[in-house]
Design a protein that fits this description.
The termini are far apart. By secondary structure, this protein is mainly α. It has a single domain, classed as Rhomboid-like fold. Strand 2 and strand 3 form a beta hairpin. It is 55% helix and 8% strand.
């Protein structure tokens, strides 16, 4: 529906979004080394070995007996670093680049690490609950990134962001309209599309997890919904 390009929302509590940048670098490096074919070509092993397979996670279907690399529970984290192609990777990392830094700023570095992976796990759980018999591996950072998108819009709904609407029209629009439209698009696709190559429930699950976690994981004094912090009498 839209591609975020950039915002002008400054950091207020940290010098740099070191965790966000590290995640982007690590995720990209993993794809380049193990999935792009430039170094190794282990896409199948990566997806089956590190992706979340709902039928395996919920029913113990035995699909990972040959390709299993890590325990099933660990795949709820490892799948975040595996992507199905360049466009899948670039899209997720672009969303994280635009929205992740301000969420990290609102939480601090360590809590953002926990938040990011918790959103990814929440996304995988939602996907597995919605498609319990699926044997297709769930891969990608979309759910974890969706959690960051949810936190961003709850923190800064009125901030203007530049987006590429329909992948061709540059537009400056407030975050609440851009992200609200994105969320409606995800929900609509759950009910109206016959396409099963996109894990719509994972996006929704990650978004819901992020919306809940930002309530308790933001720094003390960090307001929600763009509200200014009102100083007590005598304070500066």
């Amino acid at each position: 529906m839209f591609i975020p390009l950039y915002d002008t929302n400054p950091l207020r509590n940290i010098r740099g979004a070191y965790v966000t940048h590290t995640i982007i670098f690590a995720t990209t490096a993993i794809f380049v080394v193990f999935q792009s074919g430039f170094v190794f070509d282990d896409s199948l092993l990566s997806e089956i070995g590190f992706g979340v397979i709902p039928a395996e996670a919920r029913l113990g279907a035995g699909l990972r007996d040959v390709y299993g690399v890590v325990p099933e529970s660990v795949t709820f984290v490892t799948y975040i670093f595996v992507h199905a192609g360049w466009m899948h990777l670039i899209g997720n990392m672009l969303f994280l680049w635009v929205f992740g830094d301000n969420v990290e700023d609102a939480m601090g570095h360590l809590r953002f690490v926990v938040f990011y992976f918790a959103c990814g796990a929440g996304a995988a759980l939602a996907h597995a609950a919605a498609t319990p018999t699926s044997e297709v591996p769930l891969v990608g950072a979309s759910g974890a990134v969706a959690g960051s998108v949810a936190a961003y819009v709850m923190l800064h709904p009125r901030v203007k962001i530049w987006v590429l609407l329909f992948m061709r029209i540059p537009l400056k629009i407030s975050a609440m309209w851009a992200i609200g439209g994105w969320l409606l698009f995800q929900i609509a696709n759950v009910f109206v599309t016959s396409q099963h190559t996109t894990a719509w429930w994972a996006h929704i699950g990650g978004f819901a997890t992020g919306a809940l976690l930002i309530l308790v994981m933001r720094r003390p004094g960090v307001p929600l919904f763009g509200q200014a912090i009102v100083a007590e009498p005598g304070e500066r």
